[in-house]
Amino acid sequence: MSIPFTQLDKLYINGQWVAVQHTEAVLNPATEAVIGHAPLGDHSSADAAIDAARQAFDRGPWPQLSVFERAGYLRRLHAELVAEREAIAGLIVAEVGCSQGVTYGMQVDMPLGHVLTAIDQSLSEQPRQIATQTTVNPFNPGGPLLLGSGSIEREPIGVVAGITGYNFPFLLNLAKIFPALLAGNTLVLKPSPFTPYSALLFGQLAERIGLPAGVLNIVTGGPDVGAMLSTDPRVDMVSFTGSEAVGISIMTQASATLKRVHLELGGKSALIVRADADIQTAAMAAVGGLTVNAGQGCALLTRFVVHESIRCAFIQTAQAIASQIKIGDPSDPTVMMGPLIRESQRAKVQGFIDRGRDSGATLVCGGGRPAHLSQGYFSEVTLFDNVRNDMEIAQEEIFGPVGVTIGFDSDEEALAIANDSRFGLNGGIYTADVATGLDMARRIRAGSVYLNGGGGQMPYAPIGGYKRSGIGREFGPDWLKEFTQEKSIIYPIGR
Q1: Residues 1, 26, 469, 398: is their CA dihedral positive or negative?
Q2: What is the mean pLDDT of residues 122-149?
Q3: How many H helices and E strands in the chain?
Q4: 200-254 per-position pLDDT tens digit
Q5: Which of 200, 364, 467, 490 could crosslink 150 through cysteines, CB 3.0-4.6 Å?
Q6: pLDDT of amino acid 92
Q7: pTM of the model
Q8: d(Cα 421, Cα 306) in Å, to the nearest integer?
Q9: Catalytic residue annotation
Q10: Based on C-alpha coordinates, what's the Rg of the chain?
């Protein structure tokens, strides 16, 4: 059975499919089978994509279209994506190894809903008026007063390079394409080499809707292509989602040309479980979060900061829940957690687990590869107890299904532990005292905090981090502002 979109063997540049010299095998991480041979971009293809985007912005119609006209194109793109929902989900299951429940809910449907909201909100953006003022004419002080005003307008930045990770590739690509294009920019999109087809499919759909040439360009490749996008003076902005280390490299590379940099990076987010919390509910949320895409999510809550009076009960409950998680090939709809993306990531996660055990933390469950799965890049749901917050497994982003439990005795201690991290992306609190929980949420240094699990879904709210978790925000009512710049136009009235 063929995997949707894996027939795409060219890059999408300047509205055309461009052949390249080299290809790279793309693997299904659950089976290790080759699902396709994707085109492998290089310096010359990146150069052509940047040039196409530059020409389309400087000489093409796209930046001059009204927001209503741009929204029309993107509404048609959204409709094409909705029509391809099943095919896109099938690709993600094979390309990412994500379980079907998470794929449909979080990888496809949620982002499609959010970008439709972004389209609707873009139509309400209007220039702001500067207050009208009267002043003395400096060249004719005794003459009539001057009357002046102006407007504050937002304009596209220019050429945007969007560089995305492998864990939620369709979502991440959407989160570059829609706001950048709605704001009037042109875009060069570079996906992870592990998940190229989740980006190339957008070229096929851009053709269908007649998107003007050069507005969207898609190139694949490794760090050399990413470095070119981050350093080339023809690129005005880099928007990157991925690891802290790569984010630092991109920011360093972009500094020489003073590009706008938008970074959505890592996290080591804390889930505080107060003494009055419902243990079953909190433990289910903790373990359930670890299983989302096999723990490959920057905003997942992986530090469980639990009151000492209920810590043992929490651990026992979490262990029982973890034992019920079905791990395997996500082509099986009953599978709850699939594999990690590649053997290199599985080995990295295993290294953290081994060092955590050696450091004195108590391994409660998991700790290796599932015994029944000899093929694929699988890792067990792993829980540690008796963890100190200064241990490596409590400070480093493992990016796998590994949770660590840290005890506390007071709310102040819990907040100190939660904030004792170089990251600040997300957080959570479980408590029966919602008022106290809200006060504590306001003191957690993170871009988002979920109190008692939140509202049951991911709302259209800003997502982004404090500290080393990134710069800027995605989604939410001010999303498009990240891809625009502000201009003041001052003018006289009456002459």
Answers
A1: positive
A2: 91
A3: 15, 22
A4: 999 999 999 999 999 999 999 999 999 999 999 999 999 999 999 999 999 999 9
A5: 490
A6: 98
A7: 0.96
A8: 17
A9: 264, 298
A10: 25
